[in-house]
Structure formats: C-alpha cells, structure tokens
Amino acid sequence: MYSPFKIDPSELQPVDHAAVRARINAAGVAYRERKAREVMAPLVSDQERQRIAELLAKYREVNCNPTPRVVIQEVAGKHGGRVEDMIGESRVHKIVLARQEAMYEIRRRFPLYSLPRIGRLFGDRDHTTALHGIKTHARRNNLTMAGTP
Questions:
Q1: Alpha-carbon separation of residue 6 from 11, 19, 48, 103, 148 (angstroms)
Q2: Distance CA 134, CA 4 (A)
Q3: 3-state secondary structure of 102
Q4: How big is the CA angle at 147 (ends 19 and 118), to the nearest 5 degrees?
Q5: Which has the higher per-residue pLDDT, 56 or 74?
Q6: Residue 26 in contact with residue 64, Cβ under 8 Å?
Q7: Which letter, b or e, does each residue of 102-134 get, where b requires 16 or more Cβ atoms within 10 Å of its Cβ?
Q8: How many other β-carbons are positioned within 10 Å of the β-carbon of residue 26?
C-alpha cells in the first residue's frame, strides 16, 4: 500500500557537511563585505576603500583554510574512497595510498600538528604509522618530507 510518508533510502543523498559549512561561511563573508560597502560608501575615500578591500581579502584567506577533516575528505574524494575507510582499519592498497597522501597533506598544510595528533585523526593510529605514511608518500612521489624529522 502506498504511503506518502515512506522514504525510499535510495533517494537519500549524502550530505557533505564541510562543503555546506564552507558555502555558509563564504555567504556570510560576502554579506558582511556588501554591508560594509553600503555603510562606508558615503564616508570613505577611494584610497581608504582600497585598503579595506585588501584587509577583507586577507581576512577571507585566513578564514577559508580547510581543517584536517576537510583535507581527509578532499583526498578521499580524489581517490574515490570514503572518509570512513580512510579512518578505519582497511588495508586495501587503494585506501592505504589515499590515507598516506592525506597524512602527507595534513603534515604539509598544518606543520604544527604533531605526528601523534595526525595519527589520532586516522583512527587512533600510532605516531610511527603517521611518520611511515608521510615518508612513504613523499618517497613514492619524489616530494620533500613536509617537515618530518
């Protein structure tokens, strides 16, 4: 019997929460910039307006940096995998390569993150596992060691 309240699970789409947050943040920045222009238009000279635009551009750069979770999502998407697989215990070669690349990218983009902290991002892995993943990815792709000791 047909019920208008039944939901077919195949119709549900996964939600990329990081992308939604990024769009909301970008919309908020754009709104603040537009409002700032409207308020300051009669009060500010062209030179001051240019300086304010430069400061807003710097603000946008600083506040749009991805988090380590976003980096993991980006790498998982690039390799056609899932974040759960990257964080999980899978030893499938494709997932291992993606996980090592994500560890390398996190170490490169967030140089203040310690190896134990990077290991914790990937399902509570040991710091030596993170170090091995970073070194292996760098060696495989002829890259610098991204701040490893």
A1: 11, 28, 58, 42, 53
A2: 51
A3: helix
A4: 50
A5: 74
A6: yes
A7: bbbbbbbebeebebeebbebbeebeeebbbebb
A8: 13
The string of DSSP letters for 72-84 reads HHHHHHHTT--HH
Identify the burial level of 5 via C-beta atoms within 10 angstroms of its C-beta, where 0-12 means exposed, 13-18 middle and 19 or more buried: exposed
Tokens of 93: 């070669």
Which ranges in the chain belong to alpha helices (H)?
17-40, 46-63, 68-78, 83-87, 93-109, 115-121, 127-140
- pTM exceeding the 0.90 threshold for the entire prediction: no
Over the Cα atoms of the chain, what is R_g? 21
- What does the alpha-carbon distance between residue 83 and residue 77 come to, in Å, rounded to a whole number? 8
pLDDT digits (tens, 9 = 90+) for 61-111: 655 667 899 899 989 999 998 999 999 999 999 999 999 999 999 999 888
Which residue, chain included where needed, has tokens 């560890």? Answer: 103
Dig out the tokens for 134 from the structure: 């970073």
- Maximum CA pair distance of the chain? 69
